[in-house]
Specification:
By secondary structure, the protein is mostly beta strands. It has helices at about 145-150, 170-175, 350-360, 390-395; strands at about 1-5, 10, 20, 45-50, 65-70, 75-80, 85, 90, 95-100, 110-115, 120-130, 135-140, 140-145, 155, 160-165, 180-185, 190-195, 200-205, 210-215, 225, 230, 235-240, 245-250, 255-260, 260-270, 285, 290-300, 310-320, 325-330, 345-350, 365-370.
Amino acid sequence: MHVTASGLKWFVSTTTGAAIIASAGCGGGGSSAGKNTVKKERAAAARVVITPAGGSSGVHPDAPVVVRATGGRLADVVLDSGGQRISGEYNADRTQWKSRWSLQPGSRINVRASAENPDGRVSTAQSSFNTEKATGETFTAAQDEVLESRRGETYGVGLPIILNFDKAVHNRAAVERSLQVIAEKPVLGAWHWFDDKQVVYRAKTYWPAHQTVKLIAHLSGVKGGKDLYGGKDLVRTYRIGASHISYLDIAKHQMRVEHDGKVVRHVPISAGMGGSAEYTTTSGIHLNMEKDEDVTMTSPGRGPGDAGYYSELIHYAVRVSSAGEYLHQTPGDEGCLGVSNCSHGCIRQPATDAIWYYKQSQPGDPVDITGTDRQVEPDNGWSYYQESWARWLKGSALHRH
C-alpha cells in the first residue's frame, strides 16, 4: 500500500516490515536516500580465567598453570617463575594455554594473560601465587665430564648429549619430559636411560652438519621420586661442524675419511693383532671422544715383568672407546701399515696422517669400523649408534611402548 503525505510516498513492504525511503520528484530538487539506522550490538568482552587462582599457596611446582578464555581467543600469556619465563602451549583455537615446564619451588609465581573478543576488544587478567618449598632432597644434573671438558669446541654429527644425575631418578618419565632439545635443523632423536643416574640423547641417524643444537633441562621443581625434586635447570649449546666420518676396513688395513660427503683422505692403517679379545679392535660405530698429543699407554692388569706388559708413549692419539682404543701415530716402525695388524688393539697411522687426523678431529665424529669378529658395546665410550633405533627407544621412559 502507499500513503501520500507532503509530497512523499512511503512504501512499506508487507513481507519484511523494513522501510525503504525514496524521493517523490515534487519539483526542482535532487534526490537523496535515507540511512539504515539499525545499530549493531557490540560483542561481550572475553573472560580470562587463570588456574591456580591468585593468592593460592602451597601449589605443587610440577602442577601445570592453565589459562582459559571464553567469548574470545587468548592473545598472550606471560608466566614468570622466580625471574624466569616459562613457556607453554595453546590449544587449536587458542582458548586455552597450558604451561609446559615445572615451576620454581618456594617462589612467587606471576601470570599475566590477555584475550580478544570477536570485535577485537582486549581483556586482561593476572594471578600471583606461591609454590610449596621442596621439603625433601634435591637432585642436579651435570653434563658428561668429557663433553664438559670440550665445551666451546665444534662437535661432530654423531654428538651425544649425556646427562649424569647426582641422585637416583625413579620418576624417569617426568624428568625426561623436562629435557628439551632444540636444533636449527631438527631430526628425529630420543633419550635412553642406561641406569637411574644417566640418560643419553642421540639422533636416529646423525645430526645434519653446520648448525647449532641447544639443550634446556627444565629440571627445577620436577619430581624425580618420592620427596625428590630437581634443584636447578641446566642449559648447554653445541655447535655442529662439518660431517667428518671415517670408515675403517680392518681386513684390508685401510681407512677412508669423508668430509661433508666427499672423500678427502685414504690412510693405510694397522689394527689389533687379534688372538684374544684384548688385542682385537672392536667393529661397529664408534665416536671420537678425547684427544691428546702425548699419551702413555700401558697394558691393562699387568705390571713390569708380567708377560705381555708394555708401556709406550704415543703421539697424536684420538680416543674412540672407554676400553682404551685410539687412532694414533705409529710408534716406531711403520712396516705394518696397510699390510697387517700388529697393534695391541688401537688403530695405527703414518705420522703425517695421524697429525692431520688429530687436527681435524671433533668430539662426536663417527668412526665406522668393520672387519673383526668383536663388536663394540653400545655403552663402551660413546658407541651409542651401535644400538638399533628400536632398542634405543626401549630405553626411553616415554617411547618404549
